Amino acid sequence: MAQISASQWKLTIEAQKNASLLQTAEWGSVKAAFGWSPTYVMNEAGGAMILFRNLPRVALGATMAYIPRGPVIFHNEPQKINDLWEEIHRLCRARHAVFLRVEPDFWQNTAEAEFLRNSMQGFENAFSTVQPPRTIIVPLTGSEEDRLARMNQKTRYNIRLSQKKDLVIREENNVSAFMELMAKTGERDHFHVHSAEYYQHCYNVFKESGKAWNLVAYYHDKPLGVLMLFIHGNRGYYLYGASSDEERNRMPNHLLQWTAMNICAANGCTEYDLWGVPDEEPETLEAQFQERSDGLWSVYRFKRGFGGEIRRTMGSFDFPYHPLFYRLAATFYRRKKAQQASGVPQN
Q1: What is d(CA 95, CA 89) in angstroms, rounded to the nearest whole number?
Q2: Phi and psi of 82, rounded to 5°?
Q3: Is 284 left (phi over 0), alpha (psi -120 to 50) or beta?
Q4: Domain boundaries in the chain?
Q5: What residues have CB less than 8 Å from 322, skipping those under 6 apart?
Q6: Fold type of domain 2-131+313-342
Q7: What element of type H or E holds 203?
Q8: Same fold, 2-131+313-342 and 134-311
Q9: Mean pLDDT, each 10-residue run in order, the chain (347 residues)
Q10: In this structure, are residues 104 and 61 in contact, taking their beta carbons and an 8 Å threshold?
Q11: DSSP per-residue codes, 136-163
Q12: Residue 37: what pLDDT?
């Protein structure tokens, strides 16, 4: 058991083809530039990148600890995994963590999820989630025609239509066009947008490792849509994207997604993660997607057509080290969410 360096973790995680992008050393580097402090720990059976961040409104020096889409399990050895948790807890206490949040990268109702959950003694369901627990995974096996055949008829038609609409997809190293459309889309669809510095740094870090593509769809030199694609191991990730209100009949987002899927397949990926749909059961999603447009419902209407499978992770779990401070944090969060829902202005 040892705390290891970022470079050591990078070598380890590269060999774990099913590990999440959010457990890579590159993701730790991105987060380190924006207020988080990554720490890496590993033994023979598994490892994790733990992110620490100072907590506001509590005692000076208190932190939150977070394991995004981890830990990574190498072997199902219960005692070794228990040892890993003990070391993680030791590090969290040493960093004055009020609580540890863990969002594993195992799908609900699988043997892997059951094994990990059984090892998580003392954890409780988290009062909130950081990453969206439910997503759509698109298989990339077979030829381009095989991938098109798995899509619904309308999506397949729109992809072929987009290829005839004088669109040009460019990969750009500068995120200025990306940021322009992200700002407009965030304002239009009411979602949080990071700073231009964040997106540029994120792209630069992963591009240096050959794992990022900043794709922009142009029509006569006017950007209509953007998609930032990331790849790790067997999976491609659609983390960030945006579009213009103009020239929607040209279907730029369909062409961007199709381009991203083909890039993933060419780089050895077997699946593509569309990253985030409403956290509802598939039956509810299918019953309500035509009527609802709040939250992630509008993007579900778009994403469902690409022939993927709806999946849900195990969820989000917290281990409180200081129960009183933890309950205060949970109460503050719930009160803030309730105020937002009721329209009360936030300071």
Answers
A1: 10
A2: -60, -40
A3: alpha
A4: 2-131+313-342, 134-311
A5: 62, 98, 99
A6: Aminopeptidase (3.40.630)
A7: helix 196-208
A8: yes
A9: 92 96 98 98 97 80 95 96 97 97 98 97 96 97 97 97 97 96 83 92 98 97 96 97 92 98 98 96 94 88 96 98 90 76 40
A10: no
A11: EEEE--S-HHHHHHTS-HHHHHHHHHHT
A12: 98
Q: Which two tokens stand for residue 268?
A: 């050895």
Q: Torsion angle of alpha carbons 55, 57, 61, 63, nearest 10°?
A: -20
The residue length of the chain stands at: 347
Tokens, residue 237: 């990730």
Q: What is the pLDDT of residue 34?
A: 97
Using CA atoms, how far apart are residues 289 and 32, in angstroms rounded to an integer? 38
Q: Cis omega (within 30 of 0) on the bond before 133?
A: no
Give me the pLDDT at residue 60, please: 72
Number of H helices, E strands in the chain: 12, 15
- Residue located via tokens 């983390």: 239
For residues 277 and 296, the answer to whether their CB atoms sit within 8 Å is: yes
Give 134-311's CATH code, choosing from 1.20.1090.10, 3.40.630.30, 1.20.1250.20, 3.90.1180.10.
3.40.630.30
What pLDDT shows up at residue 344? 35
Residue identified by tokens 């030791």 is: 90
Would you say 195 and 209 are in contact if contact means Cβ atoms under 8 Å apart?
no
Q: Rounded to whole angstroms, how far apart are CA atoms 191 and 207?
A: 25
Phi, psi of 239 (to 5 degrees): -85, -40
- Model pTM? 0.93
**In whole angstroms, what is the distance from residue 281 CA to residue 332 CA?**
28
DSSP letter for each residue of 60-128: TT-EEEEEET-PEESS--HHHHHHHHHHHHHHHHHTTEEEEEEE-S-BTTSHHHHHHHHH-TT-EE-SS
